[in-house]
Amino acid sequence: MKRIGNLYHRIADPDNLRIAFRKAVRGKCDRDEVIRFRDSFDDNLAKLHGQLVCHDVSVGNYRFFTINDPKKRRICAASFSERVLHHAIMNICEPVLDRYSIFDSYACRAGKGQRAAVNRARAFAGNFAWYLKLDICKYFDSITHEVLLKLFSRRFKDNDLLVMFGQILNTYHTSLGRGLPIGNLVSQHFANFYLGLFDHWIKEERKVKGYLRYMDDFVLFNDSREALKGDLALVKSFLDEELKLELKDNIQINRTACGLPFLGMRIYPIVVKLSARSKTRFVRKLRDYEMRTVRGEMESQELAERVSSLVEFTRIADSKGFRREVINRNGVLS
Q1: Model-level pTM greater than 0.90?
Q2: Cα 143 to chain center, whole Å?
Q3: What is the helix, strand, coil percentage profile of the chain, to 5?
Q4: Taking a C-beta distance cutoff of 8 angstroms, is the pair 136, 246 a contact?
Q5: Does the structure show a pLDDT above 50 at 207?
Q6: Are 104 and 213 in contact (CB under 8 A)?
Q7: pLDDT at 149
Q8: d(CA 60, CA 36)
Q9: pLDDT digits over 95-119, tens only?
Q10: How do residues 185-198 score in pLDDT, each as one tens digit?
Q11: At 73, phi and psi to the nearest 5?
């Protein structure tokens, strides 16, 4: 694939920065840092533009906090100005990264997403007898900066852009030369791109017909259990040698008729069900939202938005009866 150049100046363009601001502000209009930025909008945008032109962009201004849903994670939130920068970068670079993606890569891509990944997995389950389910051990923490920059250099012929990528990577380490912060827009796209080399190896060199990936969760399908066991050994070797990654120990090889656990679902050839963990999470979060509303900690509009998002997740599965039972039993949304 031909390398793409002449992108850095497009990132710095004031029109692109305005578009980036509009994206960064979505759902955050009432936050203090957004209000402050907007109150001096022209000056702040001119400052960011000037930093880009002078190659002196302020990055690494992070705030850290921990969430426990669905599991404990340390979230890294960039300052609002830096989030505008991230959107400005991805406005220009995302199309290049997307063109490199294979069809069956579903995270961080327009027109893809969780629902599309589940539907594709269901189609594969209907066409193959066996699956091999894998994911990466501490994926974001394990991404090697040097390897990522080398992969970027194969896609981008723009030294200013590559230098800025390096500056962003240098703001965060889980160990020497490793790690991406969870919670940043660019981190999501960088992490998704990192496994693109593996995607192409699987499809173009290994010629695996049944394969899909959602970030670091991926599945291989085959009619032969022994063929999948052979693939597993080669996958381990490739990930270690080329990307410095290790698989989690929870490797699963099973018949598709027994159900594939993937993205909070249990996927069968003819039906998709919510996993037991997803059902528990649904009930717990509904109760939590209701109690927070009763205590006056959440407005009715926010309640409606959060519940709508929660319900939309369950709609990926055949779960209408489950939702009705939970709501009737708990009185939520009555």
Answers
A1: yes
A2: 14
A3: 55, 15, 30
A4: yes
A5: yes
A6: yes
A7: 98
A8: 19
A9: 999 999 999 999 999 999 999 999 9
A10: 999 999 999 999 99
A11: -140, 145
